[in-house]
């Protein structure tokens, strides 16, 4: 033990300057972080630049850690005629000393450097412990990645070369694996992701085996062979061994494995008309309250997309996000531009129609869960509209988006906040009243080096604004945003009633100066009241919303789904021949690029042959799914060898 | 009693055989010179002995232990200094000694001080700032202060200027007098170890030429000049560098025996006059080196 500490002390003495350099990088991160915390998010561009700076510093720190780990190992190289090999010290002891040195230099020291920062930004003991463990975890993960490579090389040049080659091989493998999954289908993607995750685990175990073997024997050729054997064995144990191409295994929710699950949310009530008359340009106010939404679901928003056409032919597209600083501002206009479609009402609707067919989502789901920005009317659009004579034709589309439940907790300043990759304490709760919707902005301070915040920049000491739409547990009607609600204890999540308002003006004209709330002055349209025109439509939408399938987002990993070899042919975007896919009809159709414009979705056939050669033809009405959203039919499982045939319209 | 024994030791690097079927002994208490021209396999042999390189076949025993099983206990009794050894150059001499000390329970502080004074090493200077000779001295000091039973020096003189070389040899000789250790020193130049070695091993192209005491070696080799022989007379079996000019011949006799060599010539040529002169180790080594070159050229043609 004395000797072990003796070697460690030597490393500490030798490498204090490079470690001090590491600390300087951390200091710069804190400097950027302090600016980010002070930033109120109003200048998105400036905030973005700071975030980029923080990300660059974070990357530099990890790279320096990686190289430093190698330099520490190379002080007593495992390969070559190293001095230590003729000293009276066992390899195991040397390995212990090296790991201890690396732990102290590249793990503990960065944590100690971070400690004052964590205290300064208000972490309590639990936060600091969490952050310390996360920092230590990431640093040591980088170190463990570097150590085997360093153990196989005896110079920094070779080490970097091996890293480069290893990186290219890993990157190529991931690409090939993603390619083998077949498509951008979210399910296949998840299957791929699971596989990549498991391969990373296998790789990590392999690296560890190299490390141990290399230290014990110093025979690197044998180490590599041994590791290949270990990795092959693990691969076989974890994924099963097949003579064919590696199967894509997925760890999926049990419900999904059983063919999908639907949860319905009921509409509680619909209010037509603007209850507070706050905006004269919003006379056709529809408020829908959802109830019985399961606690594990969260309906993020129902949005309206609106196009106003005046009598003089001019047009205003209301296709901007309500708040440009929301951080979720991926608006429909942006999506449309990226697809080279002019975001006019007609093209958007057409695009939505095509998108629904291609992506196999029910019509009206503009964007779907993967692209789920809420679209809100913007104040500047309001001004533009006000400048016009109020004689217009308005068309509105509705969409329902979904996201995972945030969970039930009090959102008060100072309370702890954990959601997905964000952890921290709520630093501000704000309300916005200009859309009569209570919206609470939570500014959370991310602890430095949070492990779980990996993809957003571990070590990022920034704060960021997350916006959640909240309801008060005790109030079920439309909340008025006012000063009273500021700081209210609210419950985040869909366990309670979620309020949204919708504009729903079907095609009709308003005369000038006749823009009023429905309940105050019923408007006429061809002799009928607005309510008389709207209510049937509202009812239709109500039915629609009730029947929309909602996912079960919580993943219970355990059910193992084996991919199936499936052929998809006919009127699809990209016919597939025996491609390994997540085994559902919807997944197969998505992988094949969705239905083409001339497809007949009502008679999609699954052709299945049993071992005796007998063929069965199962016809599925995908059109019904597109209409109703009932995914039972399209989520039915496929078997290996199945052929999916999509007929063309006659 | 031998501190090192090898039996049919062979090492191949891919198709090239660096050491072939080497069997030799290093007697305990001796200073053994492992000689040979560059590429003869000296360093490879020493690396196999130190378990830095694994033999392709054969076996080596160091201090009675299979070289593949050398562990901390054995290395605590072995001092190893090599020209290619990685030393922590960022350390000062003092730090280097402080670093080495805890490894060895038998570290002798008095000997350390004595050697320091003898080698005149500046304690506060970094190893990277030392001259090559000083650096080798520091390495030697780090390998001697714990009184190893076996000291292995791999080309320690390489790159040293004559003055440094002299000092270094002097140093080894002096510490050898004080210790009870065995020394194996490899070199490609006999001159460097001539004064040191009491046992000599010569390697030629990875093969053993001879391994015997310096005394026996010098007794066995003579530069012989014979006059009064027939003009077509051939050299005796095993003679090296045979040259003849009329009735005068010169050669190196590798199996010289006093009186017997003279008697053999007189038997063949009764009027022959034989003068046999002793040879230095350097001359013997050079003769072997030249012979090796001739054989290599012959082999090539």
Summarize the structure in words.
The complex is a heterodimer of chains A (650) and B (301). Chain A is of the alpha+beta class. Chain A has helices spanning 2-14, 16-38, 44-74, 91-120, 125-152, 156-181, 186-217, 220-239, 254-257, 332-338, 345-359, 379-386, 530-547, 585-591, 622-628; strands at 249-252, 266-272, 285-291, 297-310, 315-318, 392-404, 416-419, 422-430, 439-445, 463-469, 498-503, 524-525, 528-529, 559-562, 564-570, 576-581, 604-609, 615-620, 643-646. In chain A, helix 4 packs across helix 7 and helix 7 (186-217) packs antiparallel against helix 8 (220-239). The radius of gyration of chain A is 30 Å and the shape is elongated. The N and C termini of chain A lie far apart (83 Å). With 301 residues, chain B is of the alpha/beta class. Chain B has 10 helices and 14 strands. In chain B, the strands form 3 sheets. Chain B has a 6-stranded mixed β-sheet, sandwiched between helices. Chain B has a 4-stranded antiparallel β-sheet with strand order 2-1-4-5, with helices on one face. Chain B is elongated. The two termini of chain B are 44 Å apart. At the A-B interface, helix 1 of A face helix 2 and strand 6 of B.
């Amino acid at each position: 033990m004395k000797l072990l500490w003796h070697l460690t002390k030597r490393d500490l003495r030798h490498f204090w300057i490079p470690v001090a350099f590491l600390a300087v990088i951390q200091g710069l991160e804190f400097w950027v972080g302090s600016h980010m915390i002070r930033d109120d998010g109003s200048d998105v561009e400036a905030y973005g630049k700071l975030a980029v700076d923080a990300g660059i510093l974070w990357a530099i720190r990890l790279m320096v850690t990686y190289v430093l780990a190698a330099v520490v190992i190379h002080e007593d190289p495992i390969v070559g005629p190293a001095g230590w090999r003729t000293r009276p010290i066992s390899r195991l002891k040397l390995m212990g000393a090296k790991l201890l040195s690396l732990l102290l230099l590249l793990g503990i020291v960065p944590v100690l450097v971070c400690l004052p920062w964590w205290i300064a930004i208000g972490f309590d003991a639990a936060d600091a412990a969490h952050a310390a463990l996360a920092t230590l975890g990431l640093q040591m993960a980088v170190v463990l990645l570097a150590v085997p490579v360093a153990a196989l090389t005896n110079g920094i040049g070779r080490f970097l070369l091996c890293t480069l080659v290893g990186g290219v091989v890993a990157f190529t493998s991931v690409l090939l694996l993603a390619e083998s999954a077949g498509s951008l289908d979210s399910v296949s993607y998840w299957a791929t992701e699971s596989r990549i995750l498991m391969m990373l685990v296998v790789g990590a175990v392999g690296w560890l085996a190299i490390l141990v073997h290399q230290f014990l024997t110093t025979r690197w050729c044998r180490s590599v062979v041994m590791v290949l054997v270990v990795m092959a064995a693990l691969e076989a144990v974890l994924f099963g061994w097949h003579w064919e191409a590696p199967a894509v295994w997925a760890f999926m929710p049990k419900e999904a494995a059983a063919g999908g699950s639907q949860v319905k949310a009921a509409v509680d009530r619909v209010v037509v008309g603007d209850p507070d008359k706050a905006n004269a340009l919003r006379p056709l106010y529809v408020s829908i309250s959802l109830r019985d939404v399961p606690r594990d679901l969260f309906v993020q928003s129902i949005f309206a997309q609106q196009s106003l056409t005046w009598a003089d032919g001019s047009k205003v597209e209301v296709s901007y996000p309500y708040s440009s600083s929301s951080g979720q501002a991926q608006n429909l206009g942006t999506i449309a531009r990226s697809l080279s479609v002019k975001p006019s009402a007609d093209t958007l609707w057409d695009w939505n129609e095509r998108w629904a067919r291609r992506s196999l989502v029910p019509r009206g789901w503009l964007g779907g869960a993967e692209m789920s920005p809420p679209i809100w009317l913007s104040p500047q659009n309001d001004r533009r509209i006000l400048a016009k004579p109020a004689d217009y034709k308005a068309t509105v589309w509705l969409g329902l988006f979904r996201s995972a439940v945030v969970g039930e907790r009090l959102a008060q300043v100072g309370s702890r906040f954990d959601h997905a990759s964000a952890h921290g304490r709520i630093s501000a709760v704000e309300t916005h009243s200009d859309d009569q919707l209570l919206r609470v902005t939570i500014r959370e301070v991310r602890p430095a080096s949070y492990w779980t915040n990996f993809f957003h920049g571990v070590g990022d000491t920034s704060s960021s604004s997350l916006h959640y739409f909240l309801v008060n547990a005790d109030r079920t009607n439309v909340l008025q945003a006012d000063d009273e609600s500021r700081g209210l204890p609210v419950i985040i999540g869909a366990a309670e009633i979620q309020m949204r308002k919708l504009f729903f003006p079907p095609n009709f004209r308003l005369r000038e100066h006749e823009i009023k709330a429905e309940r105050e002055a019923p408007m006429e349209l061809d002799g009928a009241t607005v309510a008389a025109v709207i209510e049937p439509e509202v009812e239709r939408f109500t039915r629609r919303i009730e029947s929309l399938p909602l996912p079960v987002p919580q993943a219970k990993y355990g059910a193992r789904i084996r991919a199936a070899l499936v052929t998809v042919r006919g009127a699809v975007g990209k016919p597939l021949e025996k491609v390994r896919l997540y085994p559902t009809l919807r997944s197969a159709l998505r992988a094949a690029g969705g239905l083409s414009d001339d497809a007949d979705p009502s008679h999609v056939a699954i052709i299945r042959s049993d071992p005796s050669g007998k063929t069965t033809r199962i016809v599925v009405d995908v059109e019904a799914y597109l209409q109703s959203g009932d995914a039972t039919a399209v989520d039915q499982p496929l078997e290996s060898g199945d052929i999916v045939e999509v007929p063309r319209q006659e | 009693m031998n501190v090192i024994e090898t039996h049919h030791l062979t090492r191949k690097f891919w198709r090239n055989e660096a050491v072939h079927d080497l069997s030799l002994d290093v007697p305990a208490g001796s200073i053994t010179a492992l000689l040979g021209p560059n590429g003869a396999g000296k360093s490879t042999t020493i690396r196999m002995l130190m378990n830095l390189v694994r033999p392709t076949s054969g076996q080596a025993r160091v201090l009675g232990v299979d070289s593949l099983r050398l562990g901390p206990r054995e290395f605590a009794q072995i001092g190893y200094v090599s020209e290619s050894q990685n030393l922590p150059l960022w350390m000062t001499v003092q730090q280097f000694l402080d670093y080495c000390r805890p490894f060895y329970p038998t570290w002798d502080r008095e000997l350390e001080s004595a050697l320091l004074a003898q080698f005149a090493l500046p304690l506060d200077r970094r190893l990277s700032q030392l001259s090559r000779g000083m650096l080798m001295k520091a390495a030697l000091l780090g390998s001697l202060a714990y009184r190893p039973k076996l000291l292995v020096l791999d080309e320690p003189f390489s790159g040293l200027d004559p003055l440094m070389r002299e000092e270094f040899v002097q140093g080894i000789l002096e510490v050898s007098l004080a210790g009870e250790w065995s020394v194996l020193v490899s070199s490609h130049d006999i001159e460097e170890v001539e004064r040191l070695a009491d046992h000599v091993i010569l390697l030629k192209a990875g093969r053993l030429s001879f391994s015997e005491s310096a005394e026996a070696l010098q007794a066995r080799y003579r530069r012989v000049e014979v006059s009064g022989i027939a003009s077509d007379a051939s050299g005796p079996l095993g003679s090296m560098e045979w040259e003849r000019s009329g009735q005068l011949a010169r050669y190196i006799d590798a199996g010289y025996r006093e009186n017997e060599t003279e008697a053999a010539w007189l038997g063949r040529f009764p009027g022959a006059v034989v003068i046999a002169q002793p040879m230095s180790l350097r001359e013997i080594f050079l003769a072997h080196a030249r012979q090796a070159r001739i054989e290599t050229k012959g082999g090539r043609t």
